[in-house]
Amino acid sequence: MPAAPLSLLSVQSTAPAVAPGGRASQLPVALMRQGLITGDQMVQALNIQARRGGRLVDVLIARNLVPRDTLYEALARHWNTRVLSLAEERPDVRLIDRLGATACLHHQLLPICHAGGLTVIATARPEDFAARRPWLEEKFGPCLMVIARPEAIEAALLRLRGHGLAHLAEQRVPPALSCRNLTGSRMFWPLASGLVGTLILSLIFPMFMLWLAFGWTLLTMTAVTLLKIAAVATEALPQPAEAPEPPVIARLPVVSVMVALYREASIAPRLIRRLARLDYPQELLDIVLVVEAEDSLTRNALAATDLPPWMRVVVVPDGRLKTKPRALNFALDHCRGSIVGVYDAEDAPEPDQIRKVVERFHSRGPEVVCLQGVLDFYNPRTNWLSRCFTIEYATWFRLILPGIQRLGLPVPLGGTTLFFRRKAIEELGGWDAHNVTEDADLGIRLARMGYRTELIDTTTHEEANCRALPWVKQRSRWLKGYMMTYASHMRAPRLLWRQLGAWQFIGFQILFIGSLSQFVLAPVIWSFWISLFGVEHPIYAALPRPAYLMLITIFVVTELANLWFNWFAMRRTRHRLNPLWIPTLHIYFPLGSLASYKAIWELLRKPFYWDKTTHGEFDSTGG
Predict the structure, then answer these.
(1) In 501-541, where do the E strands start and end?
(2) In whole angstroms, what is the distance from residue 413 CA to residue 496 CA?
(3) What would the pLDDT profile of 450-489 be if each residue is shown by its tens digit?
(4) Angle between helices 206-233 and 188-204 (to 10 degrees)
(5) What is the arrangement of strands in the sheet containing 285-292, beginning at the earlier edge strand?
(6) Which has more pLDDT, 543 or 220?
(7) Which of 487, 361, 480, 489 is nearest to 423 (CA)?
């Protein structure tokens, strides 16, 4: 065991063991005696703590009542110890491993070394140290407390055990529920063999394969259309009455919100301004900006920004993967809230959003563990593509997704404006770090465990991806993730049936295999348009008159339903786009088919590749 540094030996010689009795309650008086805060300011801080709970230290820092460095020095004097600058120390990693790096993060503790028969342990929460002393002494023997700032503890753990924590973030979801082992021959050869076999059969039996593709496409199109109609029709059903007034919550919870940033140097300042508009109490708000270690541009941009006390940066160590879910898993252990949310880099949430989330969780039972907000765009009129994207999003988030929830089906989540009860998300193992559509996968895993997701009436505006090639790249990542999610959960279909039940299992099939089939096989349906140019389609010629009329009826009903869905959804937005843009979606969706073929190719060649979307290109909001 290495010898203790001189700075720690001085702690031992000057600091007696911390006596728990009364010290925490005497802190306000000590701060006022030291002239660090006035009586009126302390009364204000204590009133806030009494109403909202939490730590007095967090209130003082969030309200800028005492400078952070000054406050921790005062804490050290009050607890008869000292503040360590961990950059000057070399903590013993064997001691860290004995406690566990994850436990160190969770409890804001860092074992430093053995000194004179004692184990020196740094903490950012001295008021909790006495309660944890029996647990710590069971592992280390007699302990001596010193104080360190929380960011210093996190930085030391990142430096010493960052790679191990990053590896845990990649493996957090159990193998049976993760897509990480769907690689190599497990994915490539079955999929490649299927594609080659389909091509060979198409050359040998072209009409049979055309009929097979047409029949499957028609079946999935009908199933998806009926699901949409049923979802919208549920609006007519009686819904649970909402309280006319917001519920009175005795103690508001701490809410952590993670924002994964990667190569977002230009948009980071705008993000900080937008998040600063959230009107939730600052001492109960914990904004975690998650950046990759190699992303020096974003890290430098954040370092140059004067972050408010309730925002902080968490750096994710380098690893094999560079995915958003891996970053979220790593940052989850750094969060201090009982509710954990997720935003994207370009998001502009409504100011009262966090309050609505807290109120909804408070009014629901413990089975509701996830809330999904509405996503919309702040640049719908940039060009034709942004208009089409806006119409598509309005239909999905304002009509279809709420209806899917009301039908009691698994909700494939969107990637942002998601809020979870922390206990539940930790029980599930967080996000699948290898799945490039981690949100949809998480929605299915929540349903499999019997948890419920609800849509909440609050909107986050983001940037519509409105350039053709970046749009195709983004959509191909989503579709590839849908393919991975379906393959992952269908490895054990009987188990999936038992966990979901028949109704949710059928809904899962329609949502995933139906949607994917519509993108991949869309050209089969488009081929019928050749009859407008006087070319007879071979299937038309082979159909008897009743079947032909039924086919035309299905096409017409589907088109009319989609037109009505899009028009009705757009009426619920503030954009007031001209309804004449809606029929142009016939030109927009072929890009989705192109994206599906790119997704299949990437599934074969590089399944875990994250095709990054660039943000901030068409942001006219000014932050």
Answers:
(1) none
(2) 18
(3) 999 999 999 999 999 989 999 999 999 999 999 999 999 9
(4) 120
(5) 311-316, 285-292, 255-261, 339-343, 418-421, 368-377, 452-462, 348-349
(6) 220
(7) 361
Which token pair is 55? 């730590």
Enter the tokens of residue 101: 């790096």
Where do runs of H (alpha helix) occur along 174-260? 188-204, 206-233
**Residues 618 and 463: beta-carbon distance below 8 Å:** yes
Q: CB neighbours of 279 closer than 8 A, spacing ≥ 6?
A: 351, 352, 354, 355
Token digits of residue 90 = 């070399």
The residue to which tokens 């072929």 are assigned: 590
Instruction: Indicate the range of 82-86, 107-111, 387-391, 617-621 predicted with least confidence.
Output: 617-621
Q: Are 439 and 415 in contact (CB under 8 A)?
A: yes
- CA-closest candidate to residue 454, choices 553, 343, 371: 371
Separation of alpha carbons 149 and 145, rounded Å: 13
End-to-end CA separation in angstroms for the chain: 53
Give residues with Cβ within 8 angstroms of 35, minimum separation 6: none
Q: Are residues 173 and 432 in contact, defined by beta-carbon separation less than 8 angstroms?
A: yes
User: Which strand (E) or helix (H) includes residue 145?
Assistant: strand 143-147
Residues 6+ apart with CB under 8 A from 408: 503, 504
Q: Tell me the β-bridge partners of 461.
A: 348, 376
Provide the pLDDT confidence category of residue 207 given band limits of 50, 70 and 90: confident
- By the 8 A CB rule, do 397 and 290 touch? no
